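ZP: hey, is the zinc ion complex queued? I don't see it on the tracker
AM: it wasn't, my bad. submitting now with these inputs:
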Amino acid sequence: MRDQPTLEPRARIVGTLASTTTLTGSYDASGLWFRIAEGAFKGRWVTSAVLVATTARAVNGRLPMSAVTRLPSWSVNVSNLPHEPRYLSRAAAVGYLGLAAAFKARFGVALTITEAYRTLSRQQLLYRTLGYPRAAVPGTSNHGLGNAIDFGIARTNAINSPLYFGRSYDVWLTANSKRWGFDRPDYMDRRGSNPEWWHYNFVG
Ligand SMILES: [Zn+2]
């Protein structure tokens, strides 16, 4: 196989592994190739298309549909991927539904979601187009575990959004989201290295 991973699995085949083989190693930044770190094929690459992931990093963006909960249609921020349902891990979905109910009671508005669970291929697309740190390295995003939400209210932009730092929705979410298990990492806060007023992690 090639020394450098490529976007297309056209490399020379140097060996065959039994379908039950357990491998140790790591994915490259694209997530398309996995480098074997131990054993007879140490240093060789395997196309990730044939792998079944088992560790935390490996399942990121590859969760089985049985591991995620489809959210109600009202959760969709129609200004982004308007026809795609949103998914979260089960625990995060329960938290979100409670948070959204309280938000609706307070503001009379649905607490809609721009993006929640993200597949590896979508994370790769965002990483290519936005770059780090706006998009996490594929395989490392909390979105890929179904434990992150980007909130977004349709027809409001970043400047005018009540979700922006210090505005009404933001103040309320900052004060209340922890009751339902959500928090924003420090580095995404207003004075953090990568401020993202729309992003919350489910931390339980
Ligand atoms: Zn996010």
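AM: back. The CA atoms of residues 54 and 144 lie 14 Å apart.
ZP: great, adding it to the tracker
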